[in-house]
Design brief:
This protein has about 80 residues and is of the alpha+beta class. The protein has three helices and five strands; from the N terminus they run E-E-E-E-E-H-H-H. The protein has a single domain, classed as Hypothetical Cytosolic Protein, Chain: A (2-Layer Sandwich). Helix 2 crosses helix 3. Bound molecules: zinc ion. The site of zinc ion has 7 residues, from helix 1.
């Protein structure tokens, strides 16, 4: 049985893939990973309580090399994913 481990881009902790949320940046929006293209992982802890959205978005900007001017867009997308997703 395989238990793939991936790194959370925010806290850099390593977790089982099943415990992480897989996201992707596509067409200037953050979305849940669609199965195609590049993706990255954020852990439940970072999303649920530990880290504020500003820091999460900063990490995503760095990881995906996104223009900092899109930060507000990303924050909005992030909120939509975790509130309605
Ligand atoms: Zn984390």
């Amino acid at each position: 049985m395989s238990n793939p481990v991936r790194m959370c881009i925010v806290c850099r902790g390593r977790f089982l893939k099943s415990q992480l949320i897989c996201l992707q940046y596509k067409e200037e929006k953050l979305i849940k990973f669609s199965g195609v293209g590049r993706s990255f992982y954020v852990c439940r802890d970072c999303v649920d309580n530990k880290v504020d959205n500003n820091k999460i978005v900063d990490c995503i900007i760095k990881t995906c090399k996104i223009d900092k001017g899109l930060k507000e867009n990303l924050k909005q997308s992030l909120k939509e994913i975790f509130v309605y997703g």
